[in-house]
Amino acid sequence: MKYKDVQQIAKDTIDFAKKNIKPGMKLLDIRKLCEQKMLELGADSFWYWDVGAFVFAGDETTVSVSGKQYVTSDRIINENDIVTIDLSPQNDNIWGDYARTIILENGVVVDKADVNNVEWRNGLQMEDGLHKELLEFANIETTFEELYYHINEIITENGFINLDFMGNLGHSIVKNKGDRVYIEKGNKQKLSDVDYFTFEPHISIPRSKYGYKKENIYYFEDSKLVEL
């Protein structure tokens, strides 16, 4: 399998989850649903601490925790709820990494354009805007640190905060977890020095109970940044 294939496993699994999440489900049910689906689609394991699907709901969506410490809570999905799913499939040591925040209103998953809850809709739109800004801002000379400062400035200017427990915005895709380099202060390496990297701002507004995450993998093709 190629990186695009493994990332497609994650994308298809999120689509599957959107069709199957219902009020009354436990987060552990959603985690098992996603992990089983990824294995069915061709993943042979999960690269991030052997957890295939990190699932958070409600006020847990602001939680930022290392996979090493992650425990799936016994929370149950409500009729109106916000759910973040972060997937890490692997096949033959090739990683996928993909996350989405999903909204349920009146018991059904709704597209972001149709979300009635203004705060939730604004959060999802902000995530889209940050990914759009990445594609417009980054070039083969851009360093991880430059991207870190630029995106965090935009997050702040728009009244949001970065929730990441390490303050970073993503990392390189490698073979071993310990070899990752991050979109963080002090990393002078160029984005184009790595084959692939994730962009995954985890944001909220101050004093809110809710957080938002959207994660894609990006790479340079003919000197232009594109989504995997």
Question: Could you describe the 3D structure shown?
Answer:
Keywords: Aminopeptidase, Hydrolase, Protease. By secondary structure, the chain is α+β, with helices and mostly antiparallel strands. It has one domain (3-227): Creatine Amidinohydrolase. Helix content is 29%, strand content 22%. It has helices at 3-20, 27-40, 118-137, 144-157, and strands spanning 45-46, 53-57, 81-87, 89-91, 94-95, 98-105, 108-110, 161-162, 197-199, 202-204, 211-213, 216-221, 224-227. Helix 3 packs antiparallel against helix 4 (144-157). The chain is globular and about 50 Å long.
Topology:
Elements: H1 3-20, H2 27-40, E1 45-46, E2 53-57, E3 81-87, E4 89-91, E5 94-95, E6 98-105, E7 108-110, H3 118-137, H4 144-157, E8 161-162, E9 197-199, E10 202-204, E11 211-213, E12 216-221, E13 224-227
Antiparallel strand pairs: 1-4, 2-3, 3-6, 4-5, 6-7, 8-10, 9-12, 10-11, 12-13
Strand content: 15-25%
- Tell me about the biggest sheet? 4 strands, antiparallel
Low-confidence stretches: none
Tally of discrete structural domains: 1
User: In CATH, what is the class?
Assistant: Alpha Beta
Roughly what percent helix?
25-40%
- For this structure, the CATH topology is Creatine Amidinohydrolase
Quick tags:
single chain; 228 residues; globular; Creatine Amidinohydrolase; 22% strand; alpha+beta; 13 strands
